[in-house]
Amino acid sequence: MPAGKVSGFNVEAFLSHSGLGRKQMEYKAKQSVFVQGEPAQGVYYLQKGRARLLVTSKRGKEATLAILGPGDFLGQEAIALQAPSYMSTAETITPCSILKIERTEALRVIHEEHSFSDLFIAYMVSRSMRVQADLVDQLFNSSEKRLARTLLLLAQFGQSGDPKVEIPKISQETLAEMVGTTRSRVSFFMNRFRKLGFIEYNGRIHVHKSLLNIILHD
Known about the structure:
- The protein is α+β, with helices and mostly antiparallel strands.
- Helices cover 37% and strands 27% of the residues.
- The strands form four sheets. The protein has a four-stranded antiparallel beta sheet with strand order 3-10-5-8. A four-stranded antiparallel beta sheet has the order 4-9-6-7.
- The longest helix is centred in the middle third of the chain and has 27 residues, at 114-140.
- It is globular.
């Protein structure tokens, strides 16, 4: 996570501690941070742990949009100009430490502190690129490749030099929602990945870099 310090303003310190217009909060696993449709009263910064964004249809069907980790923002809708509401639900996967930045404070710091606005804009661009990549993945790749990509993203490969990474505990149902397939297909591919030595899967999932072979293979 890049940090900046301009004119006495320290981004890292701002995002690390409670203060005027911001509050550090602790969540247990499977707790809601905010709920789809609620008034968007603040932007959240994930300091520790993993969370997911999910949407619920009028018929009650849920779909997971993204898995987020330390350094991610949640609830960016709060900076919209007119009566914003949250477009999705944020739910913790593991215990999390999250900083809530009240809407007025978030708008102030974006407008007044260039180091923060630079970081926030860079994050939003990165998220937009990720959403586009997810859409391309859904349109053009097989469910097997989509599952492999999802596991690699959960393991945050590219950010760590470790050859094997344990990802947070996640159900096959949630993986199926993210990939856009059925739980039985996820189970089939997970067993295949394990037999090929790409993952270790015994309740907890350890992802090996060799899983990239699924992505790269045409």
